[in-house]
Amino acid sequence: ISYLQTTSTSTRHSMGALVVHYFFAWATSAQGGGGGRNWVDRHIHAYINIAGTHLGVPKAVTALLSGEMSDTVLMNPLATAVEQFFGRQARRELWNSWGSIWSMMPKGGDSLWGAGVDMCNATISGATEADAQNKNVHGKEERADSKTSEIQQDLHCLSKKSLPLLAITDSKETLDEIVGPIHSTLMTRRRAALHHHDVSHHHHENASSVLIDGTNQTAMSPKLKHFLAHQDFSVKAVIDLVKDLSHNLFEGVEELANKDMYEFYSESEKRPTANRHSEKAWHDPTQTPLPHAPNMKVYCLYGVGKPTERAYYYKLNRAEVKPSDASAPNQSTRNETKPTYLLNNPPFVLDSDVTPTDPNQQIEHGIKYSDGDGSVPLLSLGYICADAWTRKSSGLNPSKASVYTREYQHTPEFTVDDPMRSGPKSGDHVDILGNNDMNQDLLRILTDFELEEVNKNQISSDILQIAKTINAEKGRGIFS
């Protein structure tokens, strides 16, 4: 850039939006690159984010909590085989070691995600009444043998101060029984047990479980106890639990990932922009503003109209211990009138049996869906671009850089020469890279040709109304 004496255009996809946001803060900060306040304005002509995950993704939480997401639940016939050879515990431990997933945790806290406007009062872009009556949220005909839950109400959309990201389907009586008269004894995880060469293989298998019975004293994590005592959990509560479980649930195990690299809004009662000078928050658009770059143009290009996981139904991952099971301690003294359970690792799993018969609830296999691109919810794709960066009161675009939001309706079609993709008009998170309309807009931006076609918003979803509703509620939205 310095040699050519010109500016550049930065184009990023998905998580790359967070990486660029971090880079902008690093490049201009004395704590980072030391380029100075005007470095981005001097060197970056335009910033294009395609399917940017500005507010993170809810499935990062479930990946870290139980090693699950819609991709693992919807495998159907393959699920059993995958679970046997690469089960939840192995997936959870692997994904907890990936710093990228920690960086994708939901951002903005309950002031954004807790409003629930995008999943309770909004529809999937482009969906028709016929779609809702005849098809499930994935656009497939319902199976005759599909299991349905006895839950009559959508626990994620009941009138509450803060709508939950995660709801537990176990009865209140069951949860009270576990945290009340029934206590738990913490057992070390398999990884810790492997350090003891005299432990049998049978004990290795069960060393990743927590025994629950009527005689032992509790050694459970306080946050896990708190979690068990409730049936629904906000973004703040779930993030706090995931952080705690990453190293405190089991004894003698090192942390799986350096979660302290990131600063979550849920950790502070301050407004989101209060922590903007912390490098732990440089990747977070809700805490760190755009750089001083009044001449830079920002383009947000993303797909809409594809059901995207937004919230979850969970259940306890427990199994009853038979009296003959020698692996269970204190068998001779335990209360015989009460069953004894092993709370497995992970202690919670998706309740895939939750598939209500009402398609308008947009719930399938324990996952509640909202509008989005199939991977990233609309709230994460569009709130920052269409609202926060264009609104002075957010304090997130102090130099008033021009921001344009362009949405592309997901219209899948089969093509013989590319049968694995969704066609030239796909709004899917990955397939959008082959979307003809998006690529035409991308070329216009890169070449400065027909800029009048792209220097304007193109919005077909409910994102503007969603943002307006969130911001109008006291304690919600992003304000400086």
Please provide a written account of the structure:
There is one protein chain. This protein has about 475 residues and is α/β, with parallel strands linked by helices. The protein has 18 helices and twelve strands. The protein has helices spanning about 15-30, 40-45, 60-65, 70-75, 75-85, 90-95, 100-105, 110-115, 115-120, 130-135, 170-180, 190-195, 200-205, 220-230, 235-245, 380-385, 435-445, 465-470, and strands at about 10-15, 45-50, 165-170, 185, 210-215, 230-235, 295-305, 310-320, 340-350, 365, 365-370, 400-410. Strands 3, 4, 5, 6, 8, 9, 10 and 11 form an eight-stranded mixed beta sheet that branches. Strand 10 and strand 11 (about 365-370) form a beta hairpin. The longest helix is centred in the N-terminal third of the chain and has 13 residues, at about 15-30.
Which SSEs are present, and which pair or pack?
Elements: E1 8-13, H1 16-28, H2 39-43, E2 44-50, H3 59-66, H4 70-73, H5 77-85, H6 88-96, H7 99-103, H8 110-113, H9 117-120, H10 129-134, E3 166-168, H11 172-179, E4 183-185, H12 190-193, H13 201-206, E5 210-213, H14 222-228, E6 232-233, H15 235-245, E7 297-304, E8 308-320, E9 341-350, E10 363-364, E11 367-370, H16 378-387, E12 402-409, H17 436-447, H18 463-472
| Structural class by SSE content | alpha/beta
How would you spell out the order of helices and strands? EHHEHHHHHHHHEHEHHEHEHEEEEEHEHH
Classify the oligomer. Answer: single chain
Q: List the uncertain runs.
A: 139-150, 180-209, 211-219, 248-254, 266-275
Helix content: 25-40%
Q: Please compute the radius of gyration using only Cα atoms.
A: 24 Å
Instruction: Compute the number of strand runs.
Output: 12
Q: Residue-averaged pLDDT, rounded? A: 77
Our estimate of the beta-strand percent is 5-15%
Shape: globular
- What does the main sheet amount to? 8 strands, mixed
- Please report the distance between the alpha carbons of the first and last residues: 34 Å
Give the number of helices.
Answer: 18
